[in-house]
Structure formats: C-alpha cells, structure tokens
Design goal:
5 helices; 4-stranded antiparallel beta sheet; 32% helix; alpha+beta
Length: 167
C-alpha cells in the first residue's frame, strides 16, 4: 500500500505538521491541535475520523471522581499527548493515569489491587486494605475483586468459628 502524504492536511481539530517515526510498520504523523498540544497519530486514524483532537474535546473534568480505589485530584501533564490525571489511591499512593484508562476501567488502583489479588491467589491472609473497603461500602464489579471478597468471607467465617469453639 502506498503511503499517503498527510503533511499540511487538516482533520477536525488537528493539523498535520510532519511525518513522525513509524510504529509497528504504521505511518505516524505529528499533529498540532487547535488547543496547542502536539500529538503523534496514525495516518489511518486521521483519515477514518477516529481521532479528531489531541484528546481535549473528549476530556471531561475528572477532578473529584472516584474510579475504584483512585480519586482524581488534579490534571497532570499529558502522557504521549494524551490526557492524564493525578490520582490518589485509597492506600495513600499517588499516580498519574491516562484518562481513557480510568474511564474504561482498565486502571482502578496504583498497583496495590494487583498485589492483593496476587497474595490472595497464593493463599496469604486477606489484606487489611480490603476489609477497610468493605467497611467503606465501596462496590467493585471486577473478577479480581470477587477473588478477594470470597477470600475475606472465608477468613471471617473461619475466625468466627475458631472464636466460637474457644469459648
């Protein structure tokens, strides 16, 4: 397939400035958005209309929103030209996360949830963080949450049975 020169073309809010380094055999283009940000986009995404801006028109104010264990506290510098947010995790850590990843549910913690799920799969005791979340009434819908939830209930029932038999 012959490369289509996009230099100087306008696609919605993006103006193609120059060809960029190819990624995975795909032709990439450096674009300047009307908002002033620059971003590198695949030529096919520009021509199909799938990408219309640097992300500024899809950016919604996320400050104060909760995404599982993360609470958005501020807008961060864009990551690779994409909208990013500074988030504070329930465990106390802060991490910069892409907005699209938050909204799609791909990122729900600073990494502590993955550690807890891994420890639950190994049979470690239920992490204190999880019991705090149950008390706080935070609901989850992810498969990993269910693994931790079942482990917590099992641990609770066993400890209650031990206490009952020792009286």
């Amino acid at each position: 397939m012959e490369k289509i020169d996009e230099t100087g073309n306008r696609h919605e809010r993006l103006t193609v400035v120059a060809e960029s380094k190819s990624q995975g055999g795909k032709v990439m283009w450096l674009c300047k958005c009307d908002c002033g940000n620059t971003v590198t986009i695949r030529g096919t995404s520009l021509r199909s209309g799938r990408t219309e801006s640097c992300g500024c028109i899809t950016k919604k104010d996320e400050i104060g929103n909760r995404h599982e264990r993360l609470v958005v506290i501020a807008e961060a510098e864009p990551l690779s030209g994409r909208v990013a947010w500074l988030c504070k995790c329930d465990c106390g850590n802060e991490k910069v996360i892409l907005g699209a990843s938050l909204r799609a549910g791909h990122t729900g913690s600073c990494g502590c949830l993955h550690k807890e799920v891994s420890s639950a799969k190994r049979g470690d005791k239920t992490p204190r963080m999880f019991t705090d979340q149950i008390a706080g009434g935070i609901q989850k819908s992810r498969k990993n949450f269910m693994i931790i939830f079942v482990n917590a209930i099992t641990t609770f029932v066993r400890s209650a049975a031990r206490r009952r038999t020792s009286i």
